[in-house]
Amino acid sequence: MCRIAGFSGAFIRNVSHAWLLEELQNLERSMGGDGNGFYVELDDGAKFLSDKGVCLTTDEIAGSIWELRDRISVGCFHTRMTSAGSTCDEHCHPFVSDGARTVLVHNGHVNQYARNKKFSDSQIIAELIDREYIPLSQLEDYSSFGIAMHLGS
Predict the structure, then answer these.
(1) 3 state SS of 61
(2) How far apart are alpha carbons 84 and 80 in whole angstroms?
């Protein structure tokens, strides 16, 4: 199973860089390591930072979060354990919708959307939330934990 962490800016401002790095590494070691990613929304609400990839390390992520800690409003971290699809950058989380209004990380896959060859199930879910405002609770056959942030228009 993948590992997910959500956090507030206030929380990040009250921990040390060493603690943050250790916790991200613990999540990756516990069941992840096939790719990492993170998302932070900055206090001004208009800017965010998101990065993901098979080669993106927890050290790089902790460094980016730490550099921005005084400006972070909310954020999340995801480390992937490949259970469906291939181990590649495109399948790493988070998924940001084309409209850049929805950010999604989750654990598991959604069977009814896995048949699409152009987009991953995760990208499809992010787009559905973004375009149609479908709550995760209404997605049939969705049996895993997720964090979705709808950033507005």
Answers:
(1) helix
(2) 11
> Is residue 26's pLDDT more than 90?
yes
What tens digit of pLDDT does each residue of 134-153 get? 554 555 444 444 555 555 54
* Residue 74 DSSP SS3: strand
Nearest to 51 by CA among 76, 27, 34: 76
Please give the Cα distance from 86 to 65 (Å, whole number).
Answer: 27
Residue 7's φ and ψ, nearest 5 degrees, are -155, 155
Interaxial angle between packed helices 17-31 and 58-68, expressed in degrees from 0 to 180 and rounded to the nearest 10: 150
Q: State in Å, rounded, how far the first CA of the chain is from the last one.
A: 33
Radius of gyration for the chain, computed over Cα atoms and rounded to the nearest angstrom: 15
- Bridge partner residues of 76 (DSSP): 6, 39
This model's pTM is above 0.85: no
With beta carbons less than 8 A apart as the criterion, state whether 120 and 90 touch: yes
Query: Long-range contacts of range 120-124, CB-CB < 8 Å, 24 or more positions apart?
Result: 120/85, 120/90, 120/91, 120/95, 121/84, 122/91, 122/93, 122/95, 123/95
